Amino acid sequence: AALFMEGARKGSVVSRANSIGSTSASSVPNTDDEDSDYHQEPYKESYKDRRRRAHSQAEQKRRNAIKKGYDDLQAIVPTCEQQDFSIGSQKLSKAIVLQKTIDYIQFLHKEKKKQEEEVSTLRKDVMALKIMKVNYEQIVKAHQDNPHEGKEQVSDEVKFNVFQGIMDSLFQSFNDSISVTSFQELSACVFSWIEEHCKPQTLQDIVIGVLHQLKSQLY
């Protein structure tokens, strides 16, 4: 009985000690768990996330490039800067910007073709003037080489007759070609008459005809 009581007393002491230890242990903070939470490894971006982010960046870059292109077109094309009363002060849509750009490019093509035709006409005029220049230079040179040749052999009356014959021929074609119903029509007819009846070859034929006619009258 004494041994049994002693064992029971020791067991009670051990049980109380265990209870106190567990209580103390539960009241002490778990530093290991906190350290584990505090020192978590950094989040690693997955391949899918990286791919999604790269795709978003590329798409945003593409949209920015398109927007800049439309802004540049709107700044370059003059018709895009003009006020369109049909849409008021609203910002031009992309469709309107593109249409106005197409119209402006077509206008530039027409202007380019028109200018090319004008340049071609001017080149022909320059060629005709060069031919006339060469002929006049030859006339001046011949006169300088023989300054007294033919002097006082042609009277002023004959000169006037030559001039009158040339002018009469030109006035006949001028009178047949010119309309004076309005100043605008007169201007257009004058230019048309010059282009058709005042060409170097035409004038040369007129002068030769007048000279032949006067020659037959003089001799």
TrEMBL record:
Residues 15-30 have a biased composition (Polar residues). Keywords: Activator, Coiled coil, Cytoplasm, DNA-binding, Nucleus, Phosphoprotein, Repressor, Transcription, Transcription regulation. Pfam families: HLH (PF00010). SUPFAM superfamilies: HLH, helix-loop-helix DNA-binding domain (SSF47459). It is found in: Cytoplasm; Nucleus. Residues 50-108 form the BHLH domain. Residues 37-48 have a biased composition (Basic and acidic residues). Its main location: cytoplasm. The keyword Protein biosynthesis does not apply. One of its GO terms (cellular component) is nucleoplasm. Residues 1-65 are annotated as: Disordered. GO terms for molecular function: DNA-binding transcription factor activity, RNA polymerase II-specific; protein dimerization activity; RNA polymerase II cis-regulatory region sequence-specific DNA binding; RNA polymerase II-specific DNA-binding transcription factor binding. Residues 105-132 form a coiled coil. Gene3D superfamilies: Helix-loop-helix DNA-binding domain (4.10.280.10). One of its GO terms (biological process) is positive regulation of transcription by RNA polymerase II. InterPro entries: bHLH_dom, HLH_DNA-bd_sf, Max-like/E-box_TFs. The keyword tRNA-binding does not apply. Transcription regulator. Forms a sequence-specific DNA-binding protein complex with MAD1, MAD4, MNT, WBSCR14 and MLXIP which recognizes the core sequence 5'-CACGTG-3'. The TCFL4-MAD1, TCFL4-MAD4, TCFL4-WBSCR14 complexes are transcriptional repressors. Plays a role in transcriptional activation of glycolytic target genes. Involved in glucose-responsive gene regulation. Efficient DNA binding requires dimerization with another bHLH protein. Binds DNA as a heterodimer with MAD1, MAD4, MNT, WBSCR14 and MLXIP. Can also bind DNA as a homodimer. PANTHER family: BASIC HELIX-LOOP-HELIX ZIP TRANSCRIPTION FACTOR, MAX-LIKE PROTEIN X. This is Max-like protein X.
